[in-house]
From TrEMBL:
GO cellular component: cell surface; extracellular region; plasma membrane; side of membrane
Full protein name: GPC5 protein
PANTHER family: GLYPICAN, GLYPICAN-5
UniProt keywords, alphabetically: Cell membrane, Glycoprotein, GPI-anchor, Heparan sulfate, Lipoprotein, Membrane, Proteoglycan, Signal
Species annotation: Sylvietta virens (Green crombec)
Taxonomy of the source species: Eukaryota, Metazoa, Chordata, Craniata, Vertebrata
Function: Cell surface proteoglycan.
BP-aspect Gene Ontology terms: cell migration; positive regulation of canonical Wnt signaling pathway; regulation of protein localization to membrane
Family statement drawn from the similarity comment of this UniProt entry: Belongs to the glypican family.
Protein's UniProt keywords contain Glycoprotein: yes
Length: 368
């Protein structure tokens, strides 16, 4: 009653053993593909982690640098500016990781929150009554009167260009892991599991436990079994090319590291611009939002403090170097994996599975 290992000679197999063999080949094939995938997946996961650590390190550095700008140059508003600064860098981090947000919305939300502080602490430091309604009016007015000049828009443009490639690379790496995981659990067809049993276990039914399949026979069976997986070849090559393109974009003229480290400078220029145009801004705000309560004697506008450029810190240099090294190593490795799905049958037929050093092997019907 054998269905797969039918043979003229006496056999030591039963139908139940054939069913066990089918379960065994399915399990072994999954394990074999997992073993092949392991190195590739390990490299991608490792680089996702390394990229994210480098991003976070750069973001922390840029955030600390921005916070210190307020503490040194704009002390009257430093405490209240801490939350908007934190939100800005959280939004940037989420954007890089693929969240449904935009750089423009993050930056403009930051400047919306910043304007009431600049207006009440630097331009008109005598304001005592900064009610919720008045604060909200200032936030909305910011969009119309553009107190920060071109600097807010410049910051959006620079960050959008440099963060886009980082976001795309982050999403592409996650997609790569998803593809690899899917191939590990691709179901074997009934015909495939029968062909694998015939190749690996039917010799056992004749007592030929040491005979292994012929190389050509193994390749034919594996290629048939993995036809759907090998169809990924062209797409995988395109995927590697896309990764290479994104990595080059990250390293191009609008470098992520440079853009992030320049955030504090853009914010400083924007605040200086608002202070220089303080009288005009006050006149416009008074018309739109009304006049808030003032302290007696009305304190003069806070003096403009020019900020000297902060020198590059060790942290930034290390994160910058780490990101560049990771990019190069990763792309070099991924280029070597271009033929991963094209050669999967050859690699599964490598090693102990087939007979290489002997002239005697199993061809599916007999020992040849």
């Amino acid at each position: 009653d054998l269905q797969i290992c039918q043979h003229r000679a006496p056999t030591c197999c039963t139908k139940k053993m054939e069913e066990s063999y089918q379960a065994a080949v399915r399990r072994e094939r999954t394990q074999s593909i997992q073993a092949l995938n392991f190195e590739l997946k390990y490299m991608i996961v490792g680089h996702i982690t390394a990229f994210q650590e480098a991003f976070e390190s750069l973001l922390r550095f840029a955030e600390n640098r921005t916070s210190s700008l307020f503490e040194t140059a704009y002390r009257p508003m430093a405490k209240e500016a801490a939350e908007p600064v934190k939100e800005l860098f959280t939004d940037i981090s989420l954007y890089i990781l693929g969240a449904e947000t935009t750089v423009e919305s993050a930056v403009l939300r930051f400047f919306d929150s910043l304007f009431p502080l600049v207006y009440s602490r630097l331009i008109n430091p005598g304001i005592t009554d900064l009610s919720e309604d008045y604060t909200e009016c200032l936030r909305l007015t910011r969009q119309d009167i553009n107190p920060f000049g071109r600097y807010s828009k410049n910051m959006v443009t620079e960050l959008s260009k440099s963060l886009w490639a980082s976001r795309m690379l982050s999403q592409a790496l996650s997609l790569g892991i998803e593809v690899i995981n899917t191939t590990e659990h691709a179901a074997l067809s009934k015909e495939c599991s029968r062909a694998l049993v015939k190749m690996q276990y039917c010799p056992h039914c004749q007592g030929l436990t040491l005979i292994r399949p012929c190389v050509g026979y193994c390749l034919n069976v594996m290629r048939g079994c993995l036809a759907s997986v090998s169809e990924l070849d062209a797409h995988w090559r395109d995927f590697i090319s896309t990764l290479e393109y994104l990595a080059n974009e990250m390293a191009a003229s609008h470098e992520l590291e440079v853009a992030l480290s320049g955030i504090w400078s853009s914010i400083n220029e924007a605040i200086l611009h608002a202070q220089l145009n303080g009288p005009q801004l006050s006149a416009t705000v008074d018309k739109v939002c009304g006049q808030p309560k003032q302290q007696e004697g009305n304190l003069s506008s806070a003096s403009i403090v020019p900020v000297k450029e902060v020198t590059e810190s060790q942290t930034f240099v290390m994160a910058h170097t780490s990101l560049n090294n990771n990019r190069r190593e990763f792309i070099s490795y991924m280029k070597r994996s271009r033929t991963f799905y094209a050669s999967i049958a050859e690699r599964l037929c490598d090693g102990d599975l087939v007979m290489r050093d002997s002239s005697t092997c199993w061809n599916g019907e007999d020992v040849v």
